[in-house]
Amino acid sequence: MANDQDNLLKKVISHAKEYGFVFPSSEIYDGLSAVYDYGQNGVELKNNIKEYWWKFMTQMHDNIVGIDAAIFMHPTTWKASGHVDAFNDPMIDNKDSKKRYRADVLVEDAITKMEEKIEKEVDKAEKRFGESFDEKMFLQTNPRVLEYKKKIDEANDRLKNAMNNSDMEAMKQLIVDLEINDPISGTKNWTDVRQFNLMFSTEMGSIAEDANKIYLRPETAQGIFVNFLNVQKTGRMKIPFGIAQIGKAFRNEIVARQFIFRMREFEQMEMQYFVKPGTEMEAYEFWKAKRMKWHQALGLGSANYRFHDHLNLAHYANAACDIQFNFPMGFKELEGIHSRTDFDLKSHEKHSGKKLQYFDGESNQSYVPFVVETSVGLDRMFLSILSNSYKEEKVAGADGEEGGERVVLSIPPALAPYKIAVLPLVKKDGLPEKATDIFHELKVDFRCYYEDKDTIGRRYRRMDAIGTPYCVTIDHQTLQDNTVTIRERDSMKQERVEISTVGEKIQKLVSINELLKKI
Ligand code: GAP
Hints:
Elements: H1 3-18, E1 22-24, E2 36-38, H2 40-59, E3 64-66, H3 76-80, H4 83-86, E4 88-93, E5 100-102, H5 103-129, H6 135-141, H7 143-164, H8 168-177, E6 194-197, E7 201-204, E8 212-215, H9 221-225, H10 228-234, E9 241-250, E10 265-275, H11 280-296, E11 305-309, E12 319-327, E13 330-339, H12 343-352, E14 358-360, E15 365-367, E16 370-377, H13 378-389, E17 390-395, E18 404-409, E19 420-424, H14 431-442, E20 448-450, H15 456-465, E21 470-474, H16 476-481, E22 483-488, E23 494-498, H17 502-507, H18 512-517
Parallel strand pairs: 3-9, 19-20, 19-21
Antiparallel strand pairs: 1-2, 4-5, 4-6, 7-8, 9-10, 10-16, 11-12, 12-13, 13-16, 14-15, 17-18, 21-22, 22-23
Helix pairs in contact: 2-13, 5-7, 5-8, 7-8
Bound molecules: glycyl-adenosine-5'-phosphate.
Glycyl-adenosine-5'-phosphate (GAP) binds at residues 219, 221, 251, 253, 262-263, 266, 268, 270, 333-336, 373, 375-377, 379-380.
């Protein structure tokens, strides 16, 4: 990770803690690795993201309904879904540093280093040849570049084969052949590679002998698959239709770092779209476009999103891609869109012995529908918004603003924890009383914050730091003519308006429904 991006992530983590967005879990006991708690401002932002997703998926699509399935499910669910046998990551330990790594990630990092070496060769040659440099020709003919490319292709092929065949010996040999060192100890003193199942298990039942091993769900999707017929029949749903769900998922990630990007307990927002076999590619393209629009309507910059097609498809998928976001660590997966064929429903049919089919009245036929799923991590959405919004700016200092530096979170107003701060200019002369009246009136329609301590400049800074888009300031003129100033967070511009127009003016600017209209 480049240094300034590394710094940005560190700053975001510390800001998130200082301003009540995200705390390490059980921090008084030194925290729990890759588990986090959302604080008083974090939970508001999170709830707003959920509302934005839920309303878009369900309210704006009349053929999609939501459910809330339990986290615990019958253990056979996970046999049928393939998670018991195949939800594994290959892990390896370094005997000197005692650190554990994902073997495939070590190989991928080594490949990235080789790619960087090619980039360096290009830079060097560009400097040497100046204007006459032909990059395309150089990449096709330079012996060192060709040697690196050959090694990269070989490593990619061997990685793919080792993963597809669950061949852990081949994976170890690849690490040896690529001469990969432990980044901490610097040695090549590796253990063998072992498969590690990512599901957390526990036992249900009070008597040890009777207790059944059950799992904390590693994805919310299976709660939707097993309820497919319940919803279809009781909701009288006609294909194509979707079932949406927001909920917790748990994965015992081997290497969990990068803050809330990779957690052991996290939240997913998933939708399974059931379609007639043969129409799945149309649905896949439809949802790719829709989901991208949903992301881009937030205004975080379209260049920060891109599609990444999966080249190695899971055995049950016939198309899959990620929507990647430009996080402080670079472009990484934010959402997955997968065409999962009829794999899950058919497998549940087989394991449960129950039919999970749709009766098509028009063709008078029953069939197992195909499924296109959209799956976005709520915590990753949170991180994309927080890291993109974090800005350090110089402020000149006028109109009550304090000069110097400010940290502002330019969170999309519709998602901001507080929409309006109500601030009496000074804590005397009847201004707090007037401001309190205004606060009570506005809080019915908006999440509002009232504060009368400190200078107005400091209070503006505190509101900037938690991303409050509008500050309504009550001053001496308010007492004379019932006007207030509205200060806008990003521009810091102030406008004097009639008190009675404040709600109406701000409503459209902070409304999730207005965001939805843009899609
Ligand atoms: N049902 C499909 C599924 O679970 P996935 O690609 O494994 O697919 C979907 O996960 C999304 O869940 C990812 O795009 C990511 O946003 C989020 N996610 C997955 N693992 C996560 C983790 N350990 N921490 C935070 N978010 C995670």
